[in-house]
Design brief:
Blueprint: E1 2-6, H1 16-23, H2 29-37, E2 41-43, E3 46-47, E4 59-63, E5 78-82, E6 86-91, H3 108-111, E7 135-141, H4 144-155, E8 160-168, E9 175-179, E10 183-184, E11 192-193, E12 203-211, E13 215-222, H5 229-236, E14 260-268, E15 275-279, H6 284-295
Parallel strand pairs: 7-14
Antiparallel strand pairs: 1-4, 2-3, 2-4, 5-6, 6-7, 8-13, 8-14, 9-12, 10-11, 12-13, 14-15
Helix pairs in contact: 1-2
Length: about 300
Protein backbone atom coordinates (compact mmCIF):
# COMPACT_ATOMS: atom_id res chain seq x y z
CA UNK A 1 0.00 0.00 0.00
CA UNK A 2 1.37 3.44 -0.98
CA UNK A 3 0.53 6.51 1.09
CA UNK A 4 1.33 10.03 -0.09
CA UNK A 5 1.29 12.96 2.35
CA UNK A 6 1.98 16.66 1.95
CA UNK A 7 3.53 18.18 5.08
CA UNK A 8 1.14 20.86 6.44
CA UNK A 9 2.50 24.20 7.56
CA UNK A 10 2.05 23.44 11.26
CA UNK A 11 4.11 20.23 10.95
CA UNK A 12 7.06 21.92 9.24
CA UNK A 13 10.28 21.25 11.13
CA UNK A 14 9.15 17.97 12.72
CA UNK A 15 11.41 14.93 12.69
CA UNK A 16 10.54 12.53 9.89
CA UNK A 17 9.85 9.59 12.22
CA UNK A 18 7.49 11.68 14.34
CA UNK A 19 5.69 13.07 11.30
CA UNK A 20 5.18 9.60 9.81
CA UNK A 21 3.97 8.15 13.13
CA UNK A 22 1.42 10.91 13.70
CA UNK A 23 0.15 11.46 10.15
CA UNK A 24 0.47 8.15 8.32
CA UNK A 25 -1.35 5.77 10.73
CA UNK A 26 1.47 3.20 10.86
CA UNK A 27 0.85 2.36 14.52
CA UNK A 28 3.73 3.94 16.48
CA UNK A 29 6.93 5.93 16.18
CA UNK A 30 8.92 2.70 16.43
CA UNK A 31 6.96 1.32 13.44
CA UNK A 32 7.63 4.55 11.55
CA UNK A 33 11.36 4.24 12.31
CA UNK A 34 11.41 0.68 10.97
CA UNK A 35 9.84 1.82 7.70
CA UNK A 36 12.32 4.70 7.39
CA UNK A 37 15.30 2.42 8.12
CA UNK A 38 14.03 -0.02 5.46
CA UNK A 39 13.99 2.75 2.83
CA UNK A 40 10.20 2.63 2.54
CA UNK A 41 9.81 6.38 3.14
CA UNK A 42 10.97 9.05 0.69
CA UNK A 43 10.80 12.83 1.03
CA UNK A 44 10.56 14.74 -2.23
CA UNK A 45 11.88 11.65 -3.98
CA UNK A 46 14.82 10.98 -1.65
CA UNK A 47 15.32 8.52 1.20
CA UNK A 48 15.99 10.45 4.40
CA UNK A 49 17.06 9.41 7.94
CA UNK A 50 14.72 9.35 10.95
CA UNK A 51 16.02 12.67 12.29
CA UNK A 52 15.47 14.56 9.01
CA UNK A 53 13.35 17.67 9.59
CA UNK A 54 10.50 17.81 7.10
CA UNK A 55 9.71 21.13 5.45
CA UNK A 56 6.19 22.47 5.04
CA UNK A 57 4.93 21.49 1.60
CA UNK A 58 7.30 18.53 1.22
CA UNK A 59 5.82 15.36 -0.27
CA UNK A 60 6.33 12.24 1.85
CA UNK A 61 5.62 8.90 0.18
CA UNK A 62 5.44 5.64 2.16
CA UNK A 63 5.29 2.08 0.95
CA UNK A 64 3.53 0.29 3.80
CA UNK A 65 3.04 -3.49 3.86
CA UNK A 66 -0.54 -4.45 4.48
CA UNK A 67 -0.84 -5.81 8.02
CA UNK A 68 -1.97 -9.40 8.19
CA UNK A 69 -5.07 -9.37 10.36
CA UNK A 70 -7.03 -12.25 11.82
CA UNK A 71 -10.54 -10.99 12.56
CA UNK A 72 -12.06 -12.03 15.86
CA UNK A 73 -15.57 -13.41 16.06
CA UNK A 74 -18.15 -10.72 16.83
CA UNK A 75 -18.88 -12.05 20.30
CA UNK A 76 -15.30 -11.35 21.42
CA UNK A 77 -15.87 -7.60 21.19
CA UNK A 78 -18.76 -6.36 23.30
CA UNK A 79 -20.81 -3.48 21.87
CA UNK A 80 -22.39 -1.35 24.64
CA UNK A 81 -23.86 1.41 22.46
CA UNK A 82 -24.81 1.37 18.80
CA UNK A 83 -26.70 3.58 16.38
CA UNK A 84 -26.50 4.30 12.66
CA UNK A 85 -23.55 6.70 13.13
CA UNK A 86 -21.33 5.24 15.84
CA UNK A 87 -20.50 2.42 18.23
CA UNK A 88 -19.00 2.19 21.70
CA UNK A 89 -17.19 -1.11 22.24
CA UNK A 90 -15.29 -2.77 25.09
CA UNK A 91 -11.77 -3.80 24.10
CA UNK A 92 -10.33 -6.72 26.06
CA UNK A 93 -6.78 -6.52 27.39
CA UNK A 94 -4.25 -8.15 25.07
CA UNK A 95 -5.93 -7.01 21.84
CA UNK A 96 -4.22 -4.49 19.56
CA UNK A 97 -6.46 -1.67 18.37
CA UNK A 98 -4.85 -1.41 14.90
CA UNK A 99 -2.60 -3.66 12.91
CA UNK A 100 1.04 -2.66 12.54
CA UNK A 101 3.62 -3.77 9.98
CA UNK A 102 5.02 -7.15 10.94
CA UNK A 103 2.16 -7.99 13.33
CA UNK A 104 0.01 -10.89 12.23
CA UNK A 105 -2.29 -11.27 15.24
CA UNK A 106 -5.90 -10.23 15.72
CA UNK A 107 -6.89 -6.56 16.02
CA UNK A 108 -9.95 -4.64 17.09
CA UNK A 109 -10.05 -2.92 13.71
CA UNK A 110 -10.28 -6.28 11.97
CA UNK A 111 -12.96 -7.47 14.36
CA UNK A 112 -15.04 -4.39 13.50
CA UNK A 113 -14.63 -4.75 9.73
CA UNK A 114 -17.99 -4.20 8.06
CA UNK A 115 -19.55 -2.61 11.16
CA UNK A 116 -17.54 0.64 11.33
CA UNK A 117 -15.64 2.85 8.94
CA UNK A 118 -13.89 6.12 8.22
CA UNK A 119 -10.24 7.06 8.04
CA UNK A 120 -7.40 5.21 6.29
CA UNK A 121 -7.88 1.57 5.23
CA UNK A 122 -7.71 -0.83 8.15
CA UNK A 123 -8.51 1.82 10.80
CA UNK A 124 -12.24 1.03 11.13
CA UNK A 125 -13.21 4.53 12.26
CA UNK A 126 -11.66 4.14 15.71
CA UNK A 127 -11.58 7.61 17.28
CA UNK A 128 -8.99 7.21 20.05
CA UNK A 129 -6.58 4.58 21.34
CA UNK A 130 -5.97 2.19 24.19
CA UNK A 131 -2.72 0.38 24.89
CA UNK A 132 -2.72 -3.26 23.89
CA UNK A 133 -2.92 -4.44 27.52
CA UNK A 134 -5.44 -1.84 28.69
CA UNK A 135 -9.09 -2.87 28.58
CA UNK A 136 -12.22 -0.80 28.28
CA UNK A 137 -14.35 1.56 26.25
CA UNK A 138 -13.52 2.84 22.78
CA UNK A 139 -15.55 5.16 20.59
CA UNK A 140 -15.90 4.10 16.95
CA UNK A 141 -17.36 5.99 13.99
CA UNK A 142 -19.31 4.23 11.29
CA UNK A 143 -18.58 6.72 8.49
CA UNK A 144 -16.03 9.36 7.48
CA UNK A 145 -18.01 12.45 8.51
CA UNK A 146 -18.84 11.04 11.93
CA UNK A 147 -15.17 10.23 12.44
CA UNK A 148 -14.20 13.80 11.50
CA UNK A 149 -16.73 15.31 13.95
CA UNK A 150 -15.71 13.02 16.81
CA UNK A 151 -12.02 13.67 16.24
CA UNK A 152 -12.77 17.41 16.39
CA UNK A 153 -14.44 16.87 19.78
CA UNK A 154 -11.41 14.92 20.93
CA UNK A 155 -9.02 17.71 19.90
CA UNK A 156 -11.18 20.23 21.80
CA UNK A 157 -11.11 17.92 24.86
CA UNK A 158 -14.89 17.46 24.83
CA UNK A 159 -14.79 13.67 25.03
CA UNK A 160 -14.38 12.72 28.68
CA UNK A 161 -12.47 9.48 29.26
CA UNK A 162 -12.38 8.04 32.77
CA UNK A 163 -10.30 5.07 33.90
CA UNK A 164 -10.22 2.79 36.92
CA UNK A 165 -6.76 1.81 38.09
CA UNK A 166 -5.08 0.15 41.04
CA UNK A 167 -1.76 1.69 42.07
CA UNK A 168 0.95 0.96 44.59
CA UNK A 169 0.90 3.04 47.76
CA UNK A 170 -1.47 5.85 48.73
CA UNK A 171 -1.50 9.31 47.12
CA UNK A 172 -1.00 12.16 49.61
CA UNK A 173 -4.40 13.68 48.80
CA UNK A 174 -7.85 12.39 47.87
CA UNK A 175 -7.78 14.28 44.59
CA UNK A 176 -4.96 15.56 42.45
CA UNK A 177 -3.97 17.00 39.10
CA UNK A 178 -0.74 15.95 37.41
CA UNK A 179 0.48 18.43 34.82
CA UNK A 180 3.77 17.27 33.31
CA UNK A 181 4.74 17.20 29.61
CA UNK A 182 5.76 13.79 28.30
CA UNK A 183 7.30 12.36 25.16
CA UNK A 184 9.62 9.66 23.84
CA UNK A 185 12.28 8.87 26.46
CA UNK A 186 15.75 10.17 25.61
CA UNK A 187 17.42 6.80 26.23
CA UNK A 188 14.73 4.19 25.64
CA UNK A 189 12.56 4.56 22.49
CA UNK A 190 10.00 2.07 23.81
CA UNK A 191 9.16 4.22 26.83
CA UNK A 192 7.39 7.53 27.25
CA UNK A 193 8.91 9.83 29.84
CA UNK A 194 9.14 13.26 31.43
CA UNK A 195 12.81 13.09 30.39
CA UNK A 196 12.32 13.74 26.69
CA UNK A 197 13.55 15.89 23.82
CA UNK A 198 10.01 16.29 22.46
CA UNK A 199 7.74 17.17 25.40
CA UNK A 200 4.01 17.48 24.76
CA UNK A 201 1.51 18.91 27.23
CA UNK A 202 -0.12 16.21 29.34
CA UNK A 203 -2.65 16.59 32.15
CA UNK A 204 -4.15 13.81 34.29
CA UNK A 205 -6.63 14.18 37.15
CA UNK A 206 -7.23 11.50 39.79
CA UNK A 207 -9.58 10.78 42.68
CA UNK A 208 -8.99 8.27 45.48
CA UNK A 209 -11.78 5.67 45.52
CA UNK A 210 -10.56 3.07 48.02
CA UNK A 211 -7.52 2.69 50.26
CA UNK A 212 -6.14 -0.84 50.68
CA UNK A 213 -3.25 -2.05 52.82
CA UNK A 214 -0.51 -1.53 50.22
CA UNK A 215 -2.41 -0.18 47.24
CA UNK A 216 -5.07 2.34 46.25
CA UNK A 217 -7.97 2.22 43.81
CA UNK A 218 -8.19 5.41 41.76
CA UNK A 219 -10.59 7.02 39.34
CA UNK A 220 -8.52 8.81 36.70
CA UNK A 221 -9.62 11.26 34.03
CA UNK A 222 -7.60 12.38 31.03
CA UNK A 223 -7.51 16.01 29.97
CA UNK A 224 -5.04 15.11 27.20
CA UNK A 225 -4.42 11.77 25.51
CA UNK A 226 -0.69 11.13 25.18
CA UNK A 227 0.73 7.64 24.71
CA UNK A 228 0.98 5.80 28.06
CA UNK A 229 -0.01 9.04 29.81
CA UNK A 230 -1.71 7.61 32.91
CA UNK A 231 1.01 5.02 33.43
CA UNK A 232 3.82 7.58 33.08
CA UNK A 233 2.18 10.23 35.26
CA UNK A 234 1.27 7.90 38.12
CA UNK A 235 4.73 6.33 38.11
CA UNK A 236 6.24 9.83 38.16
CA UNK A 237 4.48 10.67 41.46
CA UNK A 238 5.58 7.38 43.01
CA UNK A 239 2.39 5.38 42.53
CA UNK A 240 2.90 3.08 39.52
CA UNK A 241 -0.02 1.10 38.14
CA UNK A 242 -0.19 -2.40 39.58
CA UNK A 243 1.10 -5.04 37.15
CA UNK A 244 2.67 -2.54 34.77
CA UNK A 245 5.67 -4.28 33.12
CA UNK A 246 7.19 -1.05 31.74
CA UNK A 247 6.64 1.68 34.33
CA UNK A 248 5.86 -0.42 37.40
CA UNK A 249 6.96 -3.64 39.06
CA UNK A 250 5.65 -6.20 36.60
CA UNK A 251 3.30 -9.12 37.31
CA UNK A 252 1.50 -9.12 40.66
CA UNK A 253 -1.86 -10.14 42.12
CA UNK A 254 -2.13 -12.82 39.44
CA UNK A 255 -2.04 -10.27 36.59
CA UNK A 256 0.22 -10.41 33.54
CA UNK A 257 -0.66 -6.84 32.46
CA UNK A 258 -1.36 -3.46 34.02
CA UNK A 259 -4.48 -2.86 36.13
CA UNK A 260 -5.94 -0.12 33.94
CA UNK A 261 -9.48 -0.10 32.56
CA UNK A 262 -11.31 2.57 30.54
CA UNK A 263 -14.49 2.49 32.59
CA UNK A 264 -16.49 5.57 31.55
CA UNK A 265 -16.95 7.52 28.33
CA UNK A 266 -18.96 10.73 27.97
CA UNK A 267 -19.47 12.70 24.77
CA UNK A 268 -21.98 14.64 22.70
CA UNK A 269 -23.48 12.74 19.80
CA UNK A 270 -22.10 14.54 16.72
CA UNK A 271 -25.40 14.40 14.84
CA UNK A 272 -28.19 14.56 17.44
CA UNK A 273 -26.53 16.67 20.15
CA UNK A 274 -27.55 14.08 22.75
CA UNK A 275 -25.23 13.69 25.75
CA UNK A 276 -24.15 10.06 25.85
CA UNK A 277 -22.57 8.43 28.90
CA UNK A 278 -21.45 4.79 28.82
CA UNK A 279 -19.76 2.69 31.49
CA UNK A 280 -18.11 -0.74 31.59
CA UNK A 281 -17.44 -2.78 34.76
CA UNK A 282 -14.03 -4.22 35.53
CA UNK A 283 -13.32 -7.42 33.59
CA UNK A 284 -13.07 -10.66 35.62
CA UNK A 285 -9.25 -10.71 35.81
CA UNK A 286 -9.12 -7.18 37.28
CA UNK A 287 -11.98 -7.93 39.68
CA UNK A 288 -10.07 -11.01 40.89
CA UNK A 289 -6.87 -8.98 41.33
CA UNK A 290 -8.78 -6.32 43.29
CA UNK A 291 -10.18 -9.04 45.53
CA UNK A 292 -6.66 -10.31 46.24
CA UNK A 293 -5.50 -6.79 47.03
CA UNK A 294 -8.38 -6.30 49.48
CA UNK A 295 -7.50 -9.59 51.19
CA UNK A 296 -3.78 -8.79 51.49
Amino acid sequence: MTVELVVPREAGGERLDRFVAEHASVGSRAAAARLIDAGAVVVDGEVRPRAHRVAAGAVVVLTVPEPVQAPLPDEDVEVVHADERLLVVVKPAGLLVHGVPGHGGPTLAAALAGRAGGGPPGRAGIVHRLDRDTSGLLLVARDEETLRRLQAQLRRRRIRRTYTTLVRGRPPSRTGRIEAPIGRDRRDPVRQSLDTDNPRDAVTRFELVEVLSERSLLRVELETGRTHQIRVHLAAIGHPVVGDPVYGHGPELGLDHQFLHASELRFTHPWTGEEIEVSAPLPPDLEAALGRARAA
